[in-house]
User: Which sequence fits this backbone?
């Protein structure tokens, strides 16, 4: 029995009905930014591979400096000077010191480095040290950063620039990532014309195709845009079949009138299994989800704002599920700048602008009817009013999901 | 007089010393996602260009339905049926109704649409209406979304998928964006080997080049990687000169030992003007900033974690300034999972993992010495302890900048 589901039920349905399907592939480190890791990454060596100074100074045995002061420095013969990028393959003699640059290797036996500022070269081959060292001071020991077998990045992670740096540090330049999912986008509706066309009487431009293509591409998918298909069930069915053949997932957008919605349901049922017919949120109620084999087929609302929210809230998590991608996301807390009424019984989403004033963050809802794309333009994020909430007073705190970049 | 500056002073210096220099260019709508708008975008037409129904139903004059009920419906002759994608270029006769699909045009004179659910077709050419309409109900009027001259997106904005949708809606498919900045990245240090090499004694892999390349590319720059240059002042000076010729900004990374830092200063002074020598933050103090003509030349610390923070906190805002880019960013509030001590006098940055538990968000600091790249790996964001703060107790709230995607 299909009925209108809550957002939580839809997300649970996605987890239960779909599994990670994306295959792994190897890419170069320089192409790995933003990709999803296909396996845990463990180090196979020590980083650094030698004891390393973090300052310019003199490597010593700390005990040789105990008790020294400005007035009574410890005077240590300079045994040697370590050059940058070269090893220090000799032990430090007790009672002596070795000059080391920042990042330079420290000889065996040295347990600390005294900063240049606390030393004086007497010109006779000895160094005066005016501040005692503690063992471990100004040193990174071999393997402090990484040791063989240590997992540094987990499967499913979307690689950031810091992660790219960590991979470089351990010498991983061939990175196992999840293959990009290919997503097909189909717009349907006799009233639609392409964005570059001037709409005639009763016509509107196709907003959903370019918007979805931009969002899915930024999310890391390859997109095949099948363009605008007129409201003809046989033609639409053929296009959906071809898209299911060529893609990992298919989004059918439009069909906001009852006839087309019914056609979309019939197409899904003829090709696979209908899982969902309607979500209790506003905007976005008339959403359809089915699967043909392991491939999801989503019927999105035609209204651009509704299509936007449904894609953000459910389609991206669905594609994340297919990729085995970590979908953790964070929200910022802000105060609403005006009171908002809400429909009891449906979670209600609002786009907003964010502004900071006297250190506090404010969310200004962008008003508009659900078909109006300019409620999205210039939005910094969105927040939700729960289904069991009848509205928010001015100044109430909301959790805003920011949308820059996607 | 150059002295160590606070982060606020450095950001002010960037605003004062540099100006937007990037040229505009035109790109197709499908290539505009993530780009920076070069000018305000105003609509040149009405969207929608006709009065439009938001439901399947019957367009009426609201007055003709006043007082109707289930028991005593208003009975209106059906004048005509509007088809999707066609105009309704006739006036609605008083006392009659017109069938319209969702998104369909509504004839002149109609001021509301009654939903299908509240109507019954009697089969004799008349429609029974059981719920009165209010003027404006279930209608989007011409220009409700956009009217000619309305600015929908402002110069400097980084285009999101919602913005792409808005541009499609108004028929803008040639988008004026700011040309990508070209940034040169140079690593210097005799101890550095490329990530694919196995370091010999005293050597380490070059982490900064691939990390910076990934971060700058994700930020929307073109990157020229000049590779690793050995610590030779003449050679380094030649490479910097070539990079300044080929790029809009140059990052010189490494040179963590005193000698190389001095060389970097001399190179900047020989090619232009030294603006800054040292920032009061940890990690990242040994940072140099200069300009040659209008082009910034940044000397980054060699330690990868320090180079990471300096790039995030100062280089990206600097590149944003050169592009005229809106750099508004948001933080999430989280509670630290353990107490942290801090050095009085320097703002101190910590990478952290974010976890959610019982609805609250927690920031777990990732411990490590500043040269250790794995304090970055797997980080979800970072927070700052102010220079006049001596530490944070467990459970204290911090503002975390999340780092996924950059």
Assistant:
């Amino acid at each position: 029995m299909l009925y209108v589901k809550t957002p939580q039920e839809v997300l649970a349905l996605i987890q239960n009905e779909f599994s990670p399907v994306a295959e792994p592939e190897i890419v170069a480190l320089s192409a790995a930014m933003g990709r999803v890791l296909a396996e845990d990454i463990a180090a196979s060596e020590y980083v650094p591979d030698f004891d390393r100074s973090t300052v310019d100074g003199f490597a010593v045995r700390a005990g040789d400096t105990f008790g020294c002061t400005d007035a009574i420095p410890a005077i240590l013969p300079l045994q040697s000077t370590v050059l940058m990028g070269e090893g220090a393959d000799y032990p430090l003699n007790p009672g002596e010191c070795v000059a080391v640059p920042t990042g330079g290797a420290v000889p065996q036996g040295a347990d600390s480095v005294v900063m240049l500022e606390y030393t004086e070269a007497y010109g006779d081959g000895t160094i005066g040290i005016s501040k005692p060292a503690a063992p471990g001071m100004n040193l990174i020991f071999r393997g402090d950063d990484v040791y063989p077998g240590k997992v540094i990045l987990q499967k499913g992670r979307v690689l950031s620039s810091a992660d790219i740096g960590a991979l470089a540090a351990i010498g991983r330049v061939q990175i196992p990532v999840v293959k990009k999912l290919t997503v097909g986008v189909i717009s349907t509706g006799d009233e639609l014309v392409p964005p570059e066309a001037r709409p005639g009487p009763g016509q509107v431009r196709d907003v959903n195709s370019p918007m979805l293509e931009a969002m899915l591409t930024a999310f890391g998918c390859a997109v095949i845009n099948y363009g605008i298909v007129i409201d003809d069930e046989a033609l639409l069915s053929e296009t959906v079949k071809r898209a299911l053949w060529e893609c990992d997932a298919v989004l059918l957008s439009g069909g906001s009138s009852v006839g087309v919605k019914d056609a979309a349901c019939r197409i899904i049922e003829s090709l696979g299994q209908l899982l969902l017919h309607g979500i209790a949120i506003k905007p976005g109620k008339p959403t359809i989800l089915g699967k043909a084999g392991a491939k999801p087929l989503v019927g999105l609302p035609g209204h651009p704002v509704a299509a936007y929210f449904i894609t953000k809230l459910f389609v991206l998590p669905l594609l994340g599920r297919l990729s085995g991608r970590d979908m953790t996301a964070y929200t910022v807390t802000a105060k609403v700048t005006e009171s908002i009424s809400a429909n009891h019984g449906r979670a209600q989403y609002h786009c907003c602008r964010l502004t900071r004033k006297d250190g506090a963050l404010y969310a200004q809802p962008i008003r508009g009817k659900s078909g109006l794309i300019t409620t999205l333009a210039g939005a910094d994020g969105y927040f939700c009013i729960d289904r069991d909430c009848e509205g928010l007073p001015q100044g109430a705190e909301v959790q805003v999901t920011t949308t820059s970049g996607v």
